[in-house]
Amino acid sequence: MAHFWTTKAFLPKMIEQQRGHIATIASLAGHVGITKLVDYCASKFAAVGFDEALRLELDVLGHSNIQTTCICPFFIQATGMFDDVNARWVPTLNPNDVADRIIVAIKKNEKITIIPGYIRLLLSLKWTFPWGCVGGLLRRLVPDAAPHGIAQKPLAKADAAKQQQQQQNAGTAAKVAHASLISKHTTDLSTDFSETLPKTASLLVQRTPSLGERVL
């Protein structure tokens, strides 16, 4: 959601001044799927689609002076996310090198920046070869994106049943507490609203959309 809110905050002024540049930081995981990174890949695929659709819409509306660039790097070192990623053939990237490459991409008005650049060729192969070849290559390229995950040993039947019963009891207690809390807050909110709302007020409160919300 940060892409949407940030763009809505700055795009109106860019349109007003007929100049600007929006850089979307995505990832190579926005073009290919990686095991153990389903949620991460989904968010990056969304970022890539957001950049492409926004660029097209700006062109259609005649705002061709506003540029967009989608940055898609490989795994970056020292970010705390992929320090121990198990990847083959393609080394993890230095964050300073990636930052320098992003600046160059913005200055050159590149539409899509793949880091490192030679992976662009591998991406083209994704739509050329059958899935068996593509999936095998991806599994070998990144055998394990989260090697720090440790499988837990299976519990004995008695211990497993006891743990399941404890979880059910805890879940029931949490649901009761949650329902009670919601009921209390709903009552307080209704009381406060009825005290502050004038008797002649309309039941429908209309709000004028902000400038940023009317842009896209």
In short:
With 216 residues, the chain is mostly helical. It has helices at residues 2-17, 38-60, 95-107, 119-126, 131-141, 157-196; strands spanning 20-25, 66-73, 112-115.
Structural summary, described in words:
Pfam families: adh_short. With 216 residues, the chain is mainly alpha-helical. The chain has a domain at 2-141: NAD(P)-binding Rossmann-like Domain (Rossmann fold), CATH 3.40.50.720. Helices cover 51% and strands 8% of the residues. The chain is built from 6 helices and 3 strands, in the order H-E-H-E-H-E-H-H-H. It has a 3-stranded parallel beta sheet with strand order 1-2-3. Strand 1 (20-25), helix 2 and strand 2 (66-73) form a beta-alpha-beta unit. The longest helix has 40 residues, at 157-196. The protein is extended, with a radius of gyration of 25 Å. Residues 196-207 have low confidence and may be disordered.
List the keywords:
216 residues, mainly alpha, Rossmann fold, 3-stranded parallel β-sheet, 6 helices
Percent range for helical residues?
A: 40-55%
Number of strands: 3
- What's the CATH class of one domain, please? Alpha Beta
Percent strand equals 5-15%
Radius of gyration: 25 Å
Number of helices: 6
Tell me, what's the shape? extended
CATH fold type of one domain: Rossmann fold
Q: Span between N and C termini?
A: 14 Å
Mean pLDDT across every amino acid position: 77
Class computed from helices, strands and strand pairing: mainly alpha
CATH superfamily of one domain: NAD(P)-binding Rossmann-like Domain
Largest β-sheet summary: 3 strands, parallel
GO molecular function: oxidoreductase activity, acting on the CH-OH group of donors, NAD or NADP as acceptor
InterPro entries: NAD(P)-bd_dom_sf, SDR_fam
Protein name: Estradiol 17-beta-dehydrogenase 11
Pfam family, one: adh_short
